[in-house]
């Protein structure tokens, strides 16, 4: 039985842009580090890896994203811009206070709505999916009432 979820890991090619994007969303940079050495390669099965990471946390302190930029070995192409029904990593969803204001801020960093609108689910939420840096799928939810 897990005690808690530690973090969600996302591999990116442009670490600075990803930090800026998730910072604009409200996550706080907890720290940056280089991860390398025999122990790291044994954990991932990649051998002699060298990875620059940035750990970001949600303002409430309960959620964390580990952004990773692989220097060695080279990054492999993934399912960028894959539709939401693709097997594997789907999306990370964040609750925001004002979805329209958040979209305006993230739009300055290249975020685009996946569909053409923000949708309301009953009287509970306004929801949307956006594409963030490098095509990452991000969900936004604004609680109503």
TrEMBL record:
Keyword annotations of the record: Metal-binding
Gene3D superfamilies the UniProt entry points to: 2,3-Dihydroxybiphenyl 1,2-Dioxygenase, domain 1
Positions of the VOC domain: 4-143
Superkingdom of the organism of origin: Bacteria
InterPro entries: Glyas_Bleomycin-R_OHBP_Dase, MMCE/EMCE_epimerase, VOC_core
Keyword Metal-binding: yes
Name of the protein described by the UniProt record: Glyoxalase
Provenance organism: Nocardia rhizosphaerihabitans
